[in-house]
Amino acid sequence: MLDKIIFINDNIAKIMITSDEALKENLVNIHLVFEDGERRILGEVNEVDNNIIIVQFLGEFKNNLFIPGIIKKPKLTSIVRVISEEELSIIMTKNDTKSFNLGKSILYDGYPVNVNVDSLFSNHLAIFGNTGSGKSYGVTKILQSLFYDPKNIALNSTFFLFDVHGEYKTAFENVNNINPNYHYKHYTVDYNNHETNLMSIPLWLLDIEDIALLLGATEFSQLAIIEKTMLILAVITQRDETSIKYKNHVIAKSIQTVLYSNLSTSRIRSEIFEIISICSTSEFNFDTKVPGIGYTREFKKCFDIGRNGTFSENILISEYLEKFIDDELERQVIKKVGKCTLKDLEDALNFVIISENILIDDKFYNMAMMLKMKLKSLIANGYAKMFDYPEYVNMDGFIKNLMTNNNGEKVQIINFDLEGLNCGISSFITKTYSKILFNIISLLKNRASLPIHIFLEEAHHFIKNYENPVYGENIFEKIAKEGRKFGIILTIISQRPTELSETALSQCSSFLLFRTNHPKDLEYMRSAIPNVNTDIIEKQKSIQPGYFVGFGKAFKIPLIIKLDIPKPEPHSSNALIYDIWSGNINNNN
């Protein structure tokens, strides 16, 4: 069948075939071996043109290993043959103690394709494909294959799934029944469901940039407001005598500043009442009794305007304010925020608004009110429960709680079910958890001793080409660049590669490419993915759902791989429109 080599250039060879029967065979993508003395060079048939086949060189076999790429081309006199069973087992990876089965080769009659754990999971992974191409099935089958493997490969693994559409609960909830060494944990924001773990983030573990992201800050000047808010929050969450004194000091000093300003009397009165309406204590509210000599006045009555245009109790209120002003309190720096909720954060922001004279400065007032309105919206929409953590914990304690179940056993799969949340809150939760994980993992004394894998569904929502610099460096770009050395690894799952950060994408080492048709996505992948070529892009265009092209570090050569149907399946199928319309399915749920 294979007659002789008639042409060799930098990366391809042309071979003449003599048998007409051979032309009837499906030669495209078949792997050939060029024997040149002791050298064995692997090639793949890319094209058949009459009695000429065009073969692309892929790499070389050396000492039962496959080395991608070649330096020296084979000779024209080389013997060309079809790949042997032994060589096929090398490029498909043998199922040894460090490997697990990923799927089957469609080219070689279901030949098992295995992957080495280190090759696939020690570097960032990207999974791309259109809606309905099988991405969720692929993720599910990969993890099920890993955790159903009797070799207990993943005993000390930790996978965090950020499940935007709530697809994976059914896929992994029974993993303990398959193997009692493995455990699954499901987090949700359904606070009426008492049978699951409720998603909750300790507010005191967040920094200024985290709060800026939560409140949707858009200007750098808002960071100064948030920074001051966090300082005040640290004081008021101590919930001791100093905390009470500090609140009264801030209110008294703010009122005093307005009282001695150049504003009109009526404007001063209005501003002071605004301060009390925003922040109040038992010593400062509208009904507080202000003691004089032999009489008392209600606080609000002290600001009645007399005939001469001044306050009737100007001296009384001035003396009262002086009792609470203690500038030494501001020099007693407390940096550690105590246990708190969104309501405490709102109180702290209110104290900033009155203490910094923001009420008088229209520009800063508008910026502060944007933050305040976002905070009120979060509270009104029920998100306050997400930050009502039941007990005070540090970062180590928080991570430990995430990674163990109620029996204190290690959990290998932690699924954050984000279904039903708007994009802003989903993005905040995903980035915040990931940032906390990175901060903990990067500080371990034994570097990379606790590997963490973060799976990001709909990753284009989180790892965007542009990130507002107010929020600091995109945590996922940071993980993409630095996470590998600490053992924190990303799996990026997306149907829109064009919307992803090129920085993050360029750091991925392995790729699972399901069917992708959009021209912009294909062009972007050509330019952004290392070592991708036109042949790989073309291969995926014709594959069916449940098939993918695997290439990169985890694969010896680019392979078209068929996945078995995961059991149980993720909840990601299309709606059964006909059955619902015709009444074959009761859709009252």
Number of helical stretches of at least 4 residues: 21
Helix content: 25-40%
Strand content: 15-25%
The N- and C-terminal alpha carbons lie at a distance of 62 Å
The radius of gyration computed from the alpha-carbon positions, rounded to a whole number of angstroms, is 32 Å
Structural class: alpha/beta
The count of β-strands is 21
Low confidence ranges:
none
What labels would you give this structure?
589 residues, 3 domains, Thrombin, subunit H, Rossmann fold
Please give a quick description of this structure.
The protein is α/β, with parallel strands linked by helices and 589 residues long.
Question: How would you describe this structure to a colleague?
Answer:
There is one protein chain. The chain is of the alpha/beta class. It is built from 21 helices and 21 strands. The strands form 3 sheets. It has a 12-stranded mixed β-sheet. Helix 13 (342-355) runs antiparallel to helix 14 (362-380) and helix 16 runs parallel beside helix 17 (475-486). The longest helix is centred in the middle third of the chain and has 19 residues, at 241-259. The two termini are 62 Å apart. The model has no long low-confidence stretch (mean pLDDT 88).
Note the topology.
Blueprint: E1 2-8, E2 12-17, H1 20-24, E3 31-36, E4 39-49, E5 52-62, E6 65-68, E7 79-82, H2 85-91, E8 99-105, E9 111-116, H3 117-121, E10 125-128, H4 135-148, E11 159-163, H5 169-172, H6 175-178, E12 184-188, E13 197-198, H7 208-214, H8 220-236, H9 241-259, H10 265-278, E14 289-291, E15 296-298, H11 314-322, H12 328-331, H13 342-355, H14 362-380, H15 395-402, E16 413-417, H16 423-441, E17 452-456, H17 475-486, E18 488-494, H18 502-506, E19 510-513, H19 519-528, H20 534-541, E20 547-552, E21 559-562, H21 577-582
Parallel strand pairs: 10-18, 10-19, 11-16, 11-17, 12-13, 12-16, 17-18
Antiparallel strand pairs: 1-2, 2-5, 3-4, 3-7, 4-5, 5-6, 8-9, 8-21, 14-15, 19-20, 20-21
Helix pairs in contact: 7-8, 8-13, 9-10, 13-14, 16-17
